[in-house]
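Example record

One chain of 199 residues, shown exactly as stored in the release files.
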Amino acid sequence: MKGPTLADLIDEVEISGLNADYGPGERRRVALEVSALNFDDWLRKMVTSPNRRGEVVLAIQRPDRRTLLHTKRFYPEGVYRLPSGGVHPDEPVVSGVTRETKEETGLDVFIDRFLGTVEYEFCHGDQALFFVSYVFLVRADNDKPVVQDPDEQITGFRYVAPPEIRGVAAQLRGLPPKWADWGRFRALPHDLVADVLGA
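Predicted structure tokens for this chain:
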């Protein structure tokens, strides 16, 4: 079964618009070797039931510049990360930012900057699967985040100072074998946020 290519997933006109309105954002391309189990699981989620053409990753900052992290019921204990959520096939990326923020946190936000994309090639043997994360810096007020969609299974939030984001990436990369592929995948947008914000 063959999935979409990056050219299928990324609308270059939309990227140009994001750069013009909120950027310019960086573009990072990375190949990640993953286990057969994870490759097959991700293939099913992204190709067999294609309900997304990528995801938004949200660096949500309140006025003191501290950035919101969340954890979920099924994550390893103590693991928090930046919120993210799928962009539907016909949905503008900017709409995905607003919708996913509201579903996961209940917060009203405005987009400050488009930080860029992380464009992935997940590899196993001679198989490849492509995906893209659109990474944004968004601003919120001091309201407390409250999950609006219980299906997200979010069980906690915390805020960190910008320099701590790099440590979050390191923690994700250091997860045990069962979570190692996921952790390496999830660490990469945190690197982008830390690098662009000078954290």
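Notes: The two ends are 41 Å apart (CA to CA).
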